[in-house]
Amino acid sequence: MASFHVIAGASETLEHTRIRKIGVSDLFDALRRGVDDFMVKPSHIVFLCLIYPLVGVVLAAWTSGANALPLLFPLVSGFALLGPFAAIGLYEISRRREAGIDASWSHAFEVKNSPALPSIAAVGIMLFAIFIAWLLTAQAFYVQLFGPAPPASLSGFINEIFATGRGWTLIVLGHAIGFVFAVVVLCTTVVAFPLLLDRDVGAYEAIHTSVRVVMANPVVMAVWGLIVAVALIIGSIPVFAGLAVVLPILGHATWHVYRKVVEPPPSAKPAG
């Protein structure tokens, strides 16, 4: 059945992947490999990833009106929750380069031919649902503190946020709430999309494997989440332009983190 294929993968039985314990040094090695992947043909990678900073600029412009100002930070920061899905073409390029086959930019869209596409879409829909839940939660929290009336002006909004007690309550607790959403995304998708590109194991096993990876390597995965968060912040500062470099490096590095933490299937291991 098609629905079961989405859940369980091509074999129509729940495949259980084997995972490894890794160290922080493995993360930095994955980052080094991610930079190497990026430097091989940076022009097509930057072209592919311009979509991400451009969307950020559009979101910022769209929310520049007073009515939408409270949604500016939730939209821009929450968009990072979709990062694992947005980088799927980068995983494909790293996979192809690792396999020694053509890794030109057009092959980033070969994902559409993947047998795991229904499962990839299912996990992507889950991420989008988390993104919407974050926006609704952030908006509800803002209304609880400031009421339903929109800010009178940009300057008034900034003053309310940074010069009042309830503004700092919004900053501190809002970040704490966002942290919870980020942890959920990390735990459920840290290796989900690379695994599905590599092996059609189904959406359930891809998410389950990500959770097991985090449980087996809690400190290392926390460090990885911190690296991703700091890199995205740094990339966002110059009007989101830095994301055109940061995103592909993180995307490629995520593929290599997957390779380090998830064992290949027995049939793929060398004999002896």
UniProtKB/TrEMBL annotation:
Keywords: Membrane, Transmembrane, Transmembrane helix. The chain crosses the membrane at residues 45-65, 71-94, 115-135, 141-158, 170-196, 222-250. The keyword Magnesium does not apply. It comes from the Bacteria. It holds the Pfam family DUF2189. This is DUF2189 domain-containing protein.
